[in-house]
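Re: beginner question about structure tokens

> Can someone show what the tokenized structure looks like for a real chain? I only ever see the sequence side.

Sure, here's an example I had lying around. Input first:
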Amino acid sequence: MKNKFLIILMSFSVMVAFCQNETFTKKFTRTKVLKIDFSKIYYKKTGEKIKENEFVKLVKNNPNLQIENIIGIDGEIEKYLVFFEKNIEKKYRKKRIIKGDLFPNFIAKTIENKRIELKNYKGKIIILRFELEANTFRFKKEEIKQIDLLINKIEKKEEKIKSIIFFASNELDIEEGFDLQNSNFELIPNSLNFHQKFSITKFPTTIIIDKNGKLVDYFTCMEDINLNKLIN
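And the corresponding structure tokens:
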């Protein structure tokens, strides 16, 4: 039964965009396959918990079944909310954090298993970079070099700036692809849930958070980042 369900889920997961083990659709777009914790599945409308066998039937019988991930502060999925409405992107897409708003706290672990919590860096400029693969052409390595150069020009940079990259890649891919020596960036692997939590849909995206923890802006052009102005 479980093996049968996994096959069903693999095709279903293309629609709901879940992620753990990598696969490819017929359109050659990259997606992921979900390993579900069945203790976390609920109906969105009623809040009622859904049993495993009931969920299997829902997947088989409802082509418009949609699932919304509720992602916690640590990037882990707290709940899967099931609903049947169409046009999920327009109706249920999480809103981006707006410029000037307080950026939500998060807890993440680096590739070196170091714990990072955003609130601990209040008083510093925070640079958050969102990337996909670390070991393919998708990784804009030259832009990371540019940002590192900007950071290295700042006097007492360790006291003023914290820089982090959220990679969708796993640890092995990051170790293979990230070969920049003495980079200022902390590297977070397996970060697709954080991408979703913060509504990042274009890659790469760079976010700047000010000393008070408020979002400065989303940047796609490195020339627009003026760290000296932000620090002063």
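Each token stands for a local structural state, so reading them left to right follows the chain. The CA atoms of residues 105 and 127 lie 14 Å apart.
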